[in-house]
Design goal:
- The protein is α+β, with helices and mostly antiparallel strands and 425 residues long.
- The protein has two domains: 4-101, Helix Hairpins, CATH 1.10.287; 117-421, Bira Bifunctional Protein, Domain 2 (BirA Bifunctional Protein, domain 2, 2-Layer Sandwich), CATH 3.30.930.10.
- Helices cover 41% and strands 19% of the residues.
- The protein has 13 helices and 17 strands.
- It has an eight-stranded mixed beta sheet. A three-stranded mixed beta sheet has the order 7-13-14, with no helix packed on it.
- A hairpin with a 4-residue loop joins β11 and β12.
- α5 (139-145) packs across α12 and α7 (167-186) crosses α12 (387-397).
- It starts with a helix and ends with a strand.
- The relative contact order is 0.14.
Length: 425
């Protein structure tokens, strides 16, 4: 959410930030409504002062035996006018909040400008692309041929965009999850959290999924939604809190199932496991001091990269342009892993610095030692990693001519020493 004070003092900068995202200016409308609300608030204060003064005069007249009816009529009239103004002030305030809650974060100054993913900028490539003396297959063909990936059984149970993993592939997904969590908690300083998978609307408003992206959520009949990412419950753990500056940064990680209707992805990646309604993901969230959030962003991205490096998976890092960034982000790095079967890099992690955008929505603040005032924290989130897509990358990069899959050395301990996955293992 945006700071109305910033918009009052920097209307041109606010509109310029929106323009970089390809959006029309909003400061004029926001400031018009803000002036109307502040005028109503001033009138309410003046009316209250008049009512208080009249009440004193009424009391004096009654004690003196005088006629106070005219003053009593005036107080009644002021009360009615005040009630109408309160309704108006509330309505205008809600309209302002609706605009600000539906407006995306402003991009950081160093974010490249562009309308869509075509303007994203590659920062680096890491690792050597595998070389095969056969035509590499895509993950779904590999998994199905092994008898360990069953889309038909999943469709019978749940419909499209689901999968049933069996045997060694089910174990590999579990192994990848444990490997990621152990690395984040053991060496990277993240605290493991096991959060709820269902949240109320307030949490989704806090991180920016609502109000604009409600169609991508799976809702229950109890007033909850299934989480689209662990970013939602993890970030909201500090909602409404005033944190001690000395405790920053707070680093959290969680393995959860994530649930997305993929309403905006009709027709995209309908085959295989790339884009599913339910998938496992290890998430990283940092609650940081504003002066340290850029450094924390680089650190978080490096943590995600380390997973891929230890698994021996080639990848590249790109910075998203203004037209491809997420709603709450002010700067995002995407990590894309190489998939030989597709002959393409595909996203496996997205690490974003949201600045104080989410913190304002959640009212998450900190207080420096010896200071009375508070400041909003900065929030960051990143995939560390999407487990299913990591499984896909392992299958495609470690495939052999006979369709078997070599288990990366980093995972063999978690796989009971298994070195190669063959049919029905």
């Amino acid at each position: 959410m945006h700071d109305i004070k910033f918009i009052r003092e920097n209307p041109e900068a606010f509109d310029a930030g929106l323009a970089r995202r390809g959006l029309a200016p909003l400061s004029g409308r926001v400031l018009e409504l803000d002036a109307k609300r502040r005028a109503a608030q001033t009138s309410l204060q003046e009316m209250q002062a008049k009512r208080n003064d009249a009440a004193k005069q009424i009391g004096l007249l009654k004690r003196q035996g005088g006629d106070a009816q005219a003053l009593m009529d005036e107080v009644a009239s002021l009360k009615d006018q005040g009630a109408a103004l309160e309704i108006e002030e509330k309505a205008v305030g809600e309209e302002i909040e609706g605009i600000l809650m539906s407006t995306p974060n402003l991009p950081a100054a160093d974010v490249p400008e562009g309308p869509d993913e075509s303007a994203n900028v590659e920062l680096r490539k890491v690792g050597t692309l595998p070389s095969f003396d056969f035509a590499p297959k895509e993950h779904d063909a590999l998994g199905t041929a092994l008898g360990l990936m069953d889309f038909e059984a999943a469709a019978k149970l749940s419909g499209a965009r689901f999968v049933v993993l069996k045997g060694a592939l089910a174990r590999m997904e579990r192994a990848l999850s444990a490997f990621m969590l152990n690395l984040h908690t053991g060496k990277k300083g993240y605290t493991e959290i096991n959060p709820p998978f269902m949240v109320r609307d307030e949490a989704l408003y806090g991180t920016g999924q609502l109000p604009k992206f409600g169609e991508d959520l799976f809702k229950t009949n109890t007033g909850h939604s299934l989480i689209p990412t662990a970013e939602v419950p993890l970030t909201n753990l500090v909602a409404g809190e005033i944190l001690d500056e000395a405790k920053l940064p707070i680093r959290m990680t969680a393995l959860t199932q994530c649930f997305r209707s993929e309403a905006g992805a009709a027709g995209k990646d309908t085959r295989g496991m790339i884009r599913q309604h339910q998938f496992a993901k290890v998430e990283m969230v940092s609650i940081a001091h504003p002066d340290q959030s850029e450094e924390e962003h680089e650190r978080m991205t490096a943590c995600a990269e380390d997973i891929l490096q230890k698994l021996g998976l080639p990848y590249r890092v790109i910075v998203l342009c203004t037209g491809d960034m997420g709603f709450s982000s002010r700067k995002t790095y995407d990590i894309e892993v190489w998939l030989p079967g597709q002959n393409a890099y595909r996203e496996i992690s997205s690490c974003s610095n949201c600045g104080d955008f989410q913190a304002r929505r959640m009212n998450a603040r900190f207080r420096a030692a010896g200071e009375k005032g508070t400041r909003f924290v900065h929030t960051l989130n990143g995939s560390g990693l999407a487990v299913g897509r990591t499984l896909i990358a392992v299958l495609e990069n470690y495939q052999q001519a006979d369709g078997s899959i070599v288990v990366p050395e980093a995972l063999r301990h978690y796989m009971g020493g298994l070195e190669v996955i063959t049919a029905n293992v």
